[in-house]
Amino acid sequence: MANPRESELHYPLGETLPQPGEALDLAPGLRWVRMGLPFALDHINLWLLRDRIDGREGWTIVDCGIASDDTRANWEKVFAERLDGLPVLRVMATHFHPDHLGLGHWLTEKWNCRLWMSATDFNLARLASSSTVGMGGASAAAFFGSHGLTDPESLDKIRARADYYPKMVPAVPASYRRLMDGTTVDIGGRSWRCIAGYGHAPEHISLFCEEAKLLISGDMVLPRISTNVSVVDVEPEADPLTLYLDSLARYLELPADTLVLPSHGKPFTGLHARVDQLREHHDERLAEVVAACAAQPTHAAGLLNVLFKRKLDLHQTTFAMGEAIAHLNALWLKGELRRELGADGVYRFSLA
């Protein structure tokens, strides 16, 4: 959902964007790359950081883009024109989602370098690249069906998406270096601290440089849209929304004038304001869910029109279902809602 209070944020570069295959200088040793995505959210931001490892000069890449011919071609153009003749020394992934890890295997093989990411997301990516892990297939269709999604065409399409993740992440590097909350990484003589966040991904890693007041926020803090927080079939009673909201508090500890480098949208300042906006957004959604469940027992599919005011395609519907269940689970696990399984096999929620 678009941010109605976006005007409270400041975009230092205005409307300037890097074109595909280009890299825009943001600061000494920091370049912004932007790759296309085949979704309504049509881009991802990737970052080049000037680096030195084991006496070798080069670059660290943060996040990879999906595995596609267009993304590879755009990376090749960046390599030819925007690395100053230097190699890539390491690849870092904020989390396991396809737009962040898709070309991780290709990049690390091409440059003979190591992938750095959290252990939880690395191992989940290895599993997901050879299975579905909540992204589609029969299990996902049955899970959404148990939360009220009954449209046969949508369920058939979800069943057919069993290869959703492997298509965009066909392989994961065989080895990696682990990032954890509080880990500090020297990148080009500057210290970057890892901040683990939960709810959007199992163990998302943001990177903060105190010296330069820079935050590579990944998907944890986005300026224009709210981060997707979903429950999926492999962990049906999860409470990712509470985890996500708790994680947001970590960013209020950072300087208010930090320049945020998000995975989607434009670099911005106003970190504390954006955290407050995200909290208010979810407070409003939770209140809407409570009101709907107070009126009558309600399932997640019945909340889609309440929580999302626009027409959704299938890709958006799967995310919307996961997010609706996340809001219901948060309230249910806090004891504010009661969950009952109907004779039709559908969970409905009402006031406790």
TrEMBL record:
The protein's UniProt keywords, in alphabetical order, are:
Hydrolase
Q: Which InterPro entries match?
A: B_lactamase-like_C (IPR048933), Metallo-B-lactamas (IPR001279), RibonucZ/Hydroxyglut_hydro (IPR036866), Sec-metab_biosynth-thioest (IPR050662), WH-like_DNA-bd_sf (IPR036388)
Recorded GO molecular functions are:
hydrolase activity
Domain (Metallo-beta-lactamase): residue spans on this chain: 43-264
Please tell me whether the keyword ATP-binding is annotated for this protein.
Answer: no
Keyword Isomerase found: no
Q: Which domain of life is it from?
A: Bacteria
Indicate what this protein is called per its UniProt record. Glyoxylase-like metal-dependent hydrolase (Beta-lactamase superfamily II)
